[in-house]
Write a structure and sequence with these properties.
The protein is an alpha/beta fold and 151 residues long. 37% of the residues lie in helices and 21% in strands. Strand 3, helix 4 and strand 4 form a beta-alpha-beta unit. The longest helix is centred in the first third of the chain and has 15 residues. The termini are far apart.
């Protein structure tokens, strides 16, 4: 079993064998804290995450980034594509919130508000305070330990 787990990580750079129910529950909690809506429109081009979100009753998969509330980015190519195409929204209030699954993406782009990723086998959740402020987002107190001023 351990060899299969390592093989999956080596093949894809990160674990794609997502356990759908718990992954969906985690992202629903995070995204519900970022967007105060009963139904959240989420865009991602990652096939595994699309499968996860397709089973949700509270998150709707969007086919277009500009029509989403949150864009989940899982790799550098998608980040660059989204950043190039973000000309459709000038004001921060009109732009979808960017959230990533990789610390390096969070560190290298100032438009991303947070990340949920794995480091040394442990889940990590981070939000950047000034980026949350730019979107007028106030997180519940349960997330205060995950908010940092800077990376």
């Amino acid at each position: 079993m351990r060899k299969i787990f390592i093989l999956l990580i080596l093949m894809y750079g990160h674990l794609y064998a997502l356990e759908r129910e718990s992954t969906l529950k985690i992202y629903h909690q995070i995204f519900s804290s970022l967007v105060a809506k009963p139904m959240i429109n989420v865009y991602t081009d990652d096939k595994e995450y699309r499968k996860v979100f397709a089973t949700s009753k509270r998150m709707v998969l969007s086919g277009y980034p500009e029509k989403s509330d949150i864009i989940l980015i899982t790799n550098r190519a998608t980040l660059f594509q989204i950043m190039r195409e973000r000309q459709w929204a000038v004001a921060k209030d009109e732009r979808p919130i960017l959230f990533v699954t990789d610390y390096r993406l969070l560190k290298n782009s100032f438009d991303i508000v947070g990340a949920f990723y794995w480091k040394k086998g442990r889940s990590q959740l981070l939000f950047i305070k000034n980026r949350l402020d730019a979107y007028n987002i106030t997180l519940p107190n349960e997330y205060k330990n995950f908010i940092v001023d800077e990376l």
